[in-house]
Amino acid sequence: AQTVTQSQPEMSVQEAETVTLSCTYDTSENNYYLFWYKQPPSRQMILVIRQEAYKQQNATENRFSVNFQKAAKSFSLKISDSQLGDTAMYFCAFMTSRGEYGNKLVFGAGTILRVKS
Amino acid sequence: DTGVSQDPRHKITKRGQNVTFRCDPISEHNRLYWYRQTLGQGPEFLTYFQNEAQLEKSRLLSDRFSAERPKGSFSTLEIQRTEQGDSAMYLCASSPSGGTVAKNIQYFGAGTRLSVL
Q1: Of the candidates B79, B2, B60, B21, which has an alpha carbon nearest to the alpha carbon of residue A44?
Q2: Bridge partner list, A51
Q3: DSSP-assigned beta bridge partners for residue B19
Q4: What is the pLDDT of residue B40?
Q5: Quick check: B42 contacting A, CB < 8 Å?
Q6: Which of B48, B50, B107 sits opposite A104 (nearest CB)?
Q7: Taking CA atoms, what residue in B is nearest to A43?
Q8: Which one of A95, B2, B51, B71 is most buried, counting C-beta atoms within 10 A?
């Protein structure tokens, strides 16, 4: 069974600073996908960034980037130039890539990020 | 397209009552997922559909839970004889079927928050 661990229940960062959220996972699969989702207070969850395990290059989306270490089974999220709108719960999630059909996401417990002005 | 829609947003019920939630996925998506999220935790997979076929069910989905997607469009999740432990946010997500990468991105609705008194 796959598991996802987020060891930081809460983090805070000053506006315009950089913050890194940690995520580790456990799997025996070789091909899979990793995701970071953002869930603002009382709002729906949206995808921030995703990484395919077969790609060595770390994914980047504007101010968001990941540090994917496959051997260590680590997948951290770096947010640069933090903005007040980044305040949210952040979830790390894992999905296998086997089969033709859609697959379930396995989520970590989440990290609450607060951006302070 | 307005995204994944869930109704109602909030439901308060008394223990022992039946409740039904509805999810309308993004129109061209043929995969639909249900997750349950308890306070301070990450979402947990309940079940998913490929068109009208229910392909996987979690052990979390007891006999009191049933989900349908009769015409491969909207889906309903029914909980019979609700218990206080059923209090949670019920999230629906959908994903497209085309393309290797696209089919692995799930788009979430805002959820239905259930409170069982």
Answers
A1: B2
A2: A34
A3: B79
A4: 85
A5: yes
A6: B48
A7: B110
A8: A95
